[in-house]
Amino acid sequence: MIKTLGRMLSILLLSLTGCINPAPASLPATTSQTIYGSAHTPTPFQPAEAIPGSMTGESPVVAGTAEAVQAKKVEDLLKIRIVYNNIADDPRLVTDWGFGATIEYHDQIILFDTGTDGRILLQNMAVMGIDPASVQAVVLSHIHNDHTGGLSDFLAVSSQPPVYLLSAFGANFINEVRRSTAVIETTPGQVIGDGILTTGAVSGNPSEQALILRTPRGMVIVTGCAHPGIVQMVGRAVTLTGDPVHLVLGGFHLGSAGPDRITMILNEFRRLGVEKVAPSHCTGEEAIRLFADAYGEDFLPTGVGSIITIGAE
Ligand SMILES: [Zn+2]
Ligand SMILES: [Zn+2]
């Protein structure tokens, strides 16, 4: 295996360690968290426009001064924190079936999926020092409860950020969310923030969207469950941007897939040029093992509490 040290891009997979308290029974207070600065007045995301085809335009969200943005790029370009997962990592966090992650990119903080239980979501976020009020947008991958179940509890303590979802979620769900905050039904290639866009609905049972983070190293693609097929979702992202694929992270939905199918998918990943993988949630133990074997050092083991940082050096 080629050493990854010294590559222009380093992905540091950090696990919080030294923890002694498994699963606190009560929800810690979160309002005093100030790690993002003392002023928690996040800029609301503006309703984004659909941009079909290649993504070359500037994002509608521009945060901070040019100097501040420049400084940010030199340090941590992108930080993904997995706040909900049925695969364990940080023992201080509650492990529970579902998926949720926060993404910090270009001074923006978004929440992608909300897990099953809002109390667990908020508790895990508190342990990781993430203030719900700092989240500027929520993106939901698909309608299943293990990705949307925590939404109402989250919105109750949040700054009511807009929720980006699919029309396929149905009127009942959408109207329910609209009682709390703005809802944006996304389209393929829709810009959600600076360097952040969505695949839009990829047809499946149910239809689903993945998040695309455009970095100088290529795309980081975050999937919830990938019910339409992980290859189809990555393929959509490639079609939309034409960018190389640096990392695919999240649920790959291969729990019932046999070795032949997983091998086919691995071949497709190579064809699509997927450089690194971080499968978890519904990927399935066998598939995770085969991805780990195939990708070697480019396989990132992830679970609840994992932090994936992509920097410039
Ligand atoms: Zn699902
Ligand atoms: Zn799921």
Q: What is the secondary structure topology, with strand pairs?
A:
Elements: E1 11-14, H1 66-74, E2 76-85, E3 99-105, E4 108-112, H2 118-127, E5 137-139, H3 145-148, H4 151-157, E6 163-165, H5 171-178, E7 183-185, E8 191-193, E9 196-198, E10 211-215, E11 218-223, H6 230-241, E12 245-251, H7 259-272, E13 276-280, H8 285-295, E14 307-311
Parallel strand pairs: 4-5, 5-6, 6-7, 11-12, 12-13
Antiparallel strand pairs: 1-14, 2-3, 2-14, 3-4, 8-9, 9-10, 10-11
Helix pairs in contact: 2-4, 6-7, 7-8
What does this structure look like?
It is a single chain. This protein is α/β, with parallel strands linked by helices and 313 residues long. The protein has one domain: Metallo-beta-lactamase, Chain A (4-Layer Sandwich), CATH 3.60.15.10. Helices cover 24% and strands 22% of the residues. It contains eight helices and 14 strands. It binds zinc ion (ZN) (2 copies). One zinc ion (ZN) is lined by residues 99, 144, 146-147, 224-225, 251, 281-282. The site of one zinc ion (ZN) has 9 residues, from helix 3.
Q: Distance N terminus to C terminus?
A: 20 Å
Low-confidence spans: 1-44, 47-74
Q: Give the name of the CATH superfamily.
A: Ribonuclease Z/Hydroxyacylglutathione hydrolase-like
Radius of gyration equals 18 Å
The CATH class turns out to be Alpha Beta
Major sheet: order of its strands?
Answer: 1-14-2-3-4-5-6-7
How many runs of DSSP E, i.e. beta strands?
14
Q: Please tell me the CATH architecture by its name.
A: 4-Layer Sandwich
Number of helices: 8
* Mean pLDDT over the full residue set: 83
| Strand-residue proportion | 15-25%
Tally the structural domains. 1
Bound molecules: zinc ion
CATH third-tier fold name: Metallo-beta-lactamase, Chain A
Structural class: alpha/beta
Quaternary state reads single chain
Percentage of residues assigned to helices: 10-25%
Q: What kind of sheet is the major sheet?
A: 8 strands, mixed
Query: Any idea what the shape is?
Result: globular
- What is the H/E string? EHEEEHEHHEHEEEEEHEHEHE
